[in-house]
Structure formats: structure tokens, C-alpha cells
Amino acid sequence: MFLSRLIMTAKQFSTSAVISFPKLKTHSGTKKRWRALSNGKFKRAHAAHAHLNVAKRPGRKNALCQTAYSSGAQTPTLKKLMPYA
Fold first, then answer.
1. pTM of the predicted structure, to 2 decimals
2. Is 34 exposed, middle or buried (0-12, 13-18, 19+ CB in 10 A)?
3. Where are any strands of DSSP class E within the chain?
4. Are 40 and 64 a contacting pair, CB within 8 Å?
């Protein structure tokens, strides 16, 4: 009963009668912190660079300014968290 109603609804609102699965949700925290690259990896900025910089050495501040890239172990997890990236 439910399946036939679902198919009828799909026929009314779309050109194909194929039942599509629910859309995957992107993890909102990952979306705010990571950006996808064309080679399949991800990049992010380092934390702790915006304030309290007086006590930090110049080399540490320069290192925090650089872009961080996802490692080989992080990339599959990030692809699951951001399926449309």
C-alpha cells in the first residue's frame, strides 16, 4: 500500500517513475572548516592564528599561517562527511 502510493507520487512530480533514495546530508562542521580540491584532497586553515599572538614565536606564527591538507587517512572520512564536495 505504502509503496504503491510512493510510486504514484513519484509519477506525479517527476518525469521518471524511479524511486530515489534520500539525499545525503553534509556535516555542517566539516563544511565550515574544509574545502575540497580538484585532486580529491581537502584543505583547511590552522587554528590559533587570529589572536594571542604576542606570546608566540615568529616561526610558529608563520607555520600557523600555512594551509593544512588532509592526510591519506583523513581523506576517506572527509569524503563521507562531504558527499557532494
1. 0.68
2. buried
3. 35-36, 42-45, 67-69
4. no
